Amino acid sequence: MKQDSRSAKPAFLDEVMSRGWRALEEEAVDGWVCRFSGGVTKRANSVLPLGEPADFAATLSVIEQRYAVRGLPAVFQISPDSMPADVDRRLAERGYQLDSPTLVQYVALTGDGNDGDSVADPRIELSDEPSDAWLETLWGVEGPHAPEAQELSRRILAETPSVYASLVLDGRVEATARLALVGNLGGVYAVATKAESRSRGHGRAVVQALLAEASNRDLEGLWLQVVEANQIARRLYESLGFETVSRYHYRVTPRS
Hints:
By secondary structure, this protein is an alpha+beta fold. It has seven helices and eleven strands.
């Protein structure tokens, strides 16, 4: 796959990724976007500092209050294009703690139908909705585990049109992945394999199936997010043509 990062700019991807894992509630506060989803995932419960507030301290105070009334810590997702340019330093000076350094990777699709396995994998099932077995597999690997949080997770997934890939063996879902559809791009999420089924190529198989599906849909490219320390996942994605084009981390204020 030939890499073309014209759609892989940090500021652009910050917004697109937010639409791929859309929060249940969003609120703009002086150039920053607050996302709330009952505390289920930092992606859906953090601030995107897309613009520069007129008064940094005042805006930060308002945002901290918005999260506090929901019983949540204030969390910022910081990328190379976050604003103001020194937002990370200023949050650190206020005691916000660094959390979850993450790489954003991107692959451009050729559109010739050869992005992914040329032969369909008979173990892979695709659906526009997550089955109960798909959800149970994902939650079993990554959580959440509480019923109330699982219902919020289900609602977050439903906020964005998506394709759900299941790798099925002997009637059981052993691995999952999700392709979020945002304009002419797609985002790969929820790549999970049951612990007893790892090291068998299942993760590669579900991601390849989504690459092929994205190509069939004439998408321009795919993005994904991978924790920087996860060397196994990084090697997998890089072997499939993904390249690091941006990064982010969170700044989290401790609960009082």
